[in-house]
């Protein structure tokens, strides 16, 4: 008698196409009885639980079609989820057409841009992983060419002939990014209210696309970052000038509006530049002390994670680069929050030069000392090594699940047929 063994895989729940369920998802530490470093322990933010502490940082790729993501983005982003990244954040996505860095940037200012994002979300969810999106406005740094088009002697500005909008740049004050760049328009109070609503509308579209979290981009010299800095914000109204409370008002307004518009169980992230690296000028600038003050405010406003980066607001910046240069600032912000008793209100993410397993472990490790951060964000290293999570696990001696379909890679040679 012939015995037929049923071997059909359980399909991934909710996926609009057939794929085997990843149970558990790639990058999940297996229960072997061995001690597991914090890097491979779960982390919960509101209704989102990550199986490890690795996050793919948002990275612009200048490859969207009128703001619509394409199959290129599906393959690009899906590769990270497939290989164990617990959370992948979709690149800076403009909330208005003039908020794009380049004419080929991602956008979410119209409903037709929801479906391409949902396709990516569906794939990442089919792998048991989480996906976020970064909402942004590029301010005075908008309407530029993709980096591979920029050559010596060629202007970085995207003119109207190539789909740019150099005559419609927004900024807190009419101060150009650098010589040879257009002078932006100083936004009006009405423009600001419109901008806040654009963030809300984009956030609602992101929710329809099924994302697990939303990040507001307040770093790197883009519009919100420009408002934070007294160098680029010379306004005399309630949104600017010397008073700290005025310069943070736009970001706080956007946070409040977006927090109210998204589900209560959806975590909200904010990315900031901890410093604009202009201390050498002797003039007032955005710095770590102000970021610590801002962090305290954002924790009270319902932000769940502060993503700590730096720089990008002035071409004259002098960055003091070292291996832990941004991680250390994240650690100081986290320490200040905990001293205020707000450490449980808002987590901290560290990004910058995290390119090996031991450093990633060190950033989040809790072994009797305060961790430097709660999540590790990496960008360039994921481009170099999409399997960063799996390689880090192997290097640290942690046994983790791999992609089901790649099972032969994860079993000892002696057990292979």
Automatic annotation (TrEMBL):
One of its GO terms (molecular function) is NADPH dehydrogenase activity. It comes from the Eukaryota. SUPFAM superfamilies: FMN-linked oxidoreductases. Pfam families: Oxidored_FMN. Residues 39-396 form the NADH:flavin oxidoreductase/NADH oxidase N-terminal domain. InterPro entries: Aldolase_TIM, OxRdtase_FMN_N, YqjM-like. Transmembrane segments: none annotated. PANTHER family: INDOLEAMINE 2,3-DIOXYGENASE PYRROLE 2,3-DIOXYGENASE (AFU_ORTHOLOGUE AFUA_5G01450, NADPH DEHYDROGENASE C23G7.10C-RELATED. This is NADPH dehydrogenase. It comes from Madurella mycetomatis.
């Amino acid at each position: 008698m012939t015995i037929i063994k049923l071997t059909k895989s359980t399909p991934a729940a909710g996926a609009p196409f057939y794929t085997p369920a990843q149970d558990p998802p790639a990058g999940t530490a297996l229960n072997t009885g061995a001690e597991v470093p914090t890097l491979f322990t779960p982390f919960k933010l509101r209704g989102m639980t990550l199986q490890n502490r690795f996050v793919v940082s948002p990275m612009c790729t200048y490859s969207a079609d009128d703001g619509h993501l394409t199959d290129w983005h599906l393959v690009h982003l899906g590769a990270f989820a497939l290989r164990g990244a617990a959370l992948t954040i979709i690149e800076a996505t403009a909330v208005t057409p003039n908020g794009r860095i380049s004419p080929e940037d991602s956008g979410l200012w119209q409903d037709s841009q929801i479906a391409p994002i949902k396709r990516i979300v569906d794939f990442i969810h089919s792998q048991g992983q989480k996906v976020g999106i970064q909402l942004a406005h590029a301010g005075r740094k908008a309407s530029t060419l993709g980096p591979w088009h920029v050559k010596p002697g060629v202007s970085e500005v995207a003119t109207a002939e190539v789909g740019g909008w150099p005559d419609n740049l927004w900024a807190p004050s009419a101060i150009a990014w650098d010589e040879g760049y257009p002078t932006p328009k100083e936004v009006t109070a009405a423009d600001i209210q419109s901008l806040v609503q654009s963030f809300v509308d984009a956030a609602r579209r992101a929710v329809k696309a099924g994302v697990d979290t939303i990040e507001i981009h307040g770093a790197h010299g883009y519009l919100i970052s420009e408002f934070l800095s007294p160098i680029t914000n010379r306004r005399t109204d309630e949104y600017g000038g010397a008073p700290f409370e005025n310069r943070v008002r736009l970001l706080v307004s956007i946070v409040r509006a977006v927090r109210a518009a998204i589900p209560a169980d959806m975590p909200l992230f904010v990315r900031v530049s901890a410093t604009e690296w202009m201390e050498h000028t002797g003039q007032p600038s955005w710095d770590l002390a102000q970021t610590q003050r801002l962090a305290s405010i954002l924790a009270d406003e319902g932000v769940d994670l502060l993503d700590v980066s730096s720089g990008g607001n002035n071409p004259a910046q002098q960055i003091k680069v070292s291996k832990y240069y941004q991680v250390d600032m994240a650690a100081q912000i986290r320490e200040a929050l905990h001293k205020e008793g707000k450490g449980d209100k808002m987590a901290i993410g560290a990004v910058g030069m995290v390119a090996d397993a031991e450093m990633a472990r060190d950033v989040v490790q809790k072994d009797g000392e305060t961790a430097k951060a709660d999540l590790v964000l990496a960008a360039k290293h994921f481009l170099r090594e999409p399997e960063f999570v799996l390689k880090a696990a192997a290097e640290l001696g942690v046994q983790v699940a791999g992609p089901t379909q790649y099972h032969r890679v994860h079993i000892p040679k002696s057990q292979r047929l």
